[in-house]
Amino acid sequence: MTAAHSATSPKHIGISPRFAFEPKSSAKRRDGLAALAFLAPYLIFFVLFLAYPFFWGVWISFHDWELVGTLRKFIGLANYWDMFEDPIFRVSIRNTLLFTAITVPVMVAASLGLALALNRENRFHAVLRVIFFTSSVFSVTVATLIWIMVLSPDRGLFAHLFNSLGLQPIAFLGSPDWAMPALTITTVWWSVGFPMILFLAGLQQIPQELYDAARIDNASAWRRLTRITLPSLKRTIVLVVVLQIIGQLQIFGQPLIMTGGGPADRTRSMVQTIYETGFNEWQLGYASAMSLFLFGVMFLASMLQLYISRQED
Amino acid sequence: MAARQLRSERTSEWLIRSLLVGLAALWMIPLIWIVAMSFKPNDVLAMSTSGLLPIPFTLKNFSDIFFVSMTPRWLLNSAVVALGTTALTLVVASLAGYAFARLDFPFKRTLFIIVLAGLMVPEQTLVIPLHAVVTSWDLHNTHFALMAPRVALPVGVFLMTQFFKAVPKELEEAAAIDNASRFTIFRRIMLPLSIPALVTLGIYTFLHSWNDFFWPLVSATNTNMYTITVGLASLQGNFAQTEGLGFIMATAVFASLPIVIVYLIFQRYLVRGIALSTGK
């Protein structure tokens, strides 16, 4: 969810005015030294563990570079051309896009629906908000463990339900048709809380007067939703859609743990292929190039948000 | 007319409420089931996993966690890493946030934009080169290596900068006349004011650090250095389809307890943090 923050942030950047009673040059010099002391601790982490690795990744992506061993050959853009010919990477791109295309609309609809239904200040709605958010605090390992069990064909909850109805249980995670939707269900259960909260925050910002006026006009609930609520939420909807696209493009833990990318690579994601290329096949240069391709795709998605919100202004 | 509309809205209100209750029940059933299994004997579970109540009841799965597993060690690693990451983030982010919000220095705007550009870099795409770099420094399988990449993320600096910018200038100016140093102003005036923001950032960082998966998976390769998140994934591979079902569920329940407790105590702050961190 990080990539889009910056899309909304640059407009907040502003240089704060100096204290009026201090002469300009001496204040600036004194502040300069203090600023160095204040910034140094963070900048050390930023440079060593973010900026440097990022550019290092760009550098090794132009190389045939192995995790161990001595093979380090400059090969220009060859890694970037290779990945589009690589059947494994192509299938991972396809799966990742398919997963994103299925999951994002479901997630946005579910979180928006929950937020609309739960946007009330009373105990009943507060408790329900906590319930729907609770699953979001689990780690991906706990969430997937729960759903592996729920979906298990011989001891899962669905299996018990199917058996009691006299039906044959489905091996969801082993089925080429069901594995992907099963990952979507797991993901929605696990992380619907975050977008729900963003929508609730957006709903809080709609002026109550708009609804009061609509009430005087006897507008129906449906009209209030389509004429006031949804148009006022437009910015939040764009934000959530983009954050979801960026988040789901990075899907990794759920298929890795639940299906191992199977059956027959049907749920193999881009990050899984990056992970295996890097740490099973030790091709760091190639894996870096794939990472940067994924970064490019996500960058485009966050530019989309910037573009849409600019258009509105 | 108005009365009829009111009545129909009441009916739909009750309809929505019952739908919500039903949905919430569906949402919770997997959790209740997992917790129930964690209190059942493994041999019972080997025959049947049905039932949402822990009958027959046992605490053996939980005592096994302490006596025959690596789980305590992994929980300790997670606690050290999550608390360490949180403490480091709070210190470096509040210092840097103060500088960006309140100090005037050369290249400030450029530097701030560079740091913000770091928000664009998704964690998943950084793992490969980060691994290579940390290998060259020989830092893998240390707690510090598990903390540092998250401390480097700019979200905290961004939040604290926004927060300090909103503090009224007059509060500082009074102290500046008394010739207090920048650090004294920061520590005596700004830091106490920023406690709510620090709590929000702290909870947000703790939760994310505790739940980190990809980076600890590749950096901590020694089982002694696994965090609970990675350790639980390794258990699943080994046990899930054999007899230790209750034990695995107990581990998952136990591993989630700290995070659920933190969440329930601080949920207000967390909710605000999510809204803040996306610039709303």
UniProtKB/TrEMBL annotation, chain A:
CDD domains with a match to the protein in the record: TM_PBP2
ABC transmembrane type-1 domain segment(s): 93-305
Protein's name according to its UniProt entry: Sugar ABC transporter permease
SUPFAM superfamilies: MetI-like
Chain ranges passing through the membrane: 33-55, 97-118, 130-150, 178-201, 237-257, 286-308
Biological process (GO), any one: transmembrane transport
Source species of the chain: Microvirga aerilata
A UniProt-annotated Pfam family: BPD_transp_1
Membrane topology per record: Multi-pass membrane protein
InterPro entries listed in its UniProt record: ABC_transporter_permease, MetI-like, MetI-like_sf
From TrEMBL, chain B:
PROSITE patterns documented for this protein: ABC_TM1
InterPro entries the record matches: MetI-like, MetI-like_sf
Transmembrane segments: 14-36, 74-99, 111-132, 144-164, 185-207, 245-266
A single cellular component GO annotation: plasma membrane
Recorded coiled-coil stretches: none
Main location: membrane
UniProt subunit comment: The complex is composed of two ATP-binding proteins (UgpC), two transmembrane proteins (UgpA and UgpE) and a solute-binding protein (UgpB).
Name of the featured protein: sn-glycerol-3-phosphate transport system permease protein UgpE
Species of provenance: Microvirga aerilata
Gene: ugpE
